Amino acid sequence: MDLLQAMSVYVKVVEAGSMTAAALQCEMSTTMVGNHLRALEQRLGVQLLQRTTRRQRLTEFGSVYYQRCLDVLGLVADSERLAEQALDEPRGLLRITAPLTFGVERLAPALSEFSLQYPQVKMDVVLTNSRPDLLESGLDVAFRLGHFEQSNLIARPLIDYTLTVCASPAYVARRGMPITPQDLQQHDCLSFAYPAGDDWQSVEKRWRLSGPHGEILVDVSGPMLMNTSAGLHQAARTGMGIVMLPDALVEQDLRDGKLVTVIPDYQPPSRPLHLLYAPDRYRLPKLRRFVEFAMKTWGRS
């Protein structure tokens, strides 16, 4: 039995609340999780969990042993980090999170270059439009859109996340080209359904544009509201309506003529983009090299 692995599995079972949930997190079968638990209990000669078909409960010793496992596994992780620092060679698992569209269109293509530079670094990339807590989720670094209030993290500014109002040539040929923001009210506009709590939620059916005479708010409507940029992108390409989408998603289509810019004299709002990480983890070579790579690739000049 690998004692450290068995202890790690036991911690996951306690924290996940079931062997099935722990098996998913550990990427092993439920049977293998059970084998690790039984081997650990046989080694200790003490029952750790009281299990039934519906629930599990820590024994008194199991609760104490869980805390000791956390201490031991924490020391092991600290020792490995010390070794990494001594070698100053980027290696190990780097956990990254990023917004979905940025991750697909910008981050994923760039990671191949980073991987070639640092082949000993393995990456676990989580693309989500939610904002997971880095420390609680065990993440090393995050690309974060919008504003945030986590003062315990380092925030490095990146280039702003910009948008473009555009439509397909077929739509423009059928419905005409809008000239002013007010013209959009007579057109089919495809809007993004922002989740509750998003700092852009209030503008899902009201587009904010900046022009020669300042900011303009335009109430738009159309045949569809959707919660994915990729879906809106495809709908716009087929001529369904006008969209406001991230440049990361539409810039190639604009170059190829599959989409055309609408009311180019009026600019949609941009969102700040930052790279976040915990200051105490920056000394790890894998994170330090990734931060340097990200700032070189997307940092403000």
TrEMBL record:
Keywords, alphabetical: DNA-binding, Transcription, Transcription regulation
Pfam families registered for this protein in UniProt: HTH_1, LysR_substrate
Sequence ranges assigned to domain HTH lysR-type in this UniProt record: 1-59
A GO biological-process term: DNA-templated transcription
SUPFAM superfamilies referenced in this protein's UniProt entry, alphabetically: Periplasmic binding protein-like II, Winged helix' DNA-binding domain
Molecular function, one GO term: sequence-specific DNA binding
Family according to the record: Belongs to the LysR transcriptional regulatory family.
Entry protein name: LysR family transcriptional regulator
Taxonomy of the source species: Bacteria, Pseudomonadati, Pseudomonadota, Gammaproteobacteria, Pseudomonadales
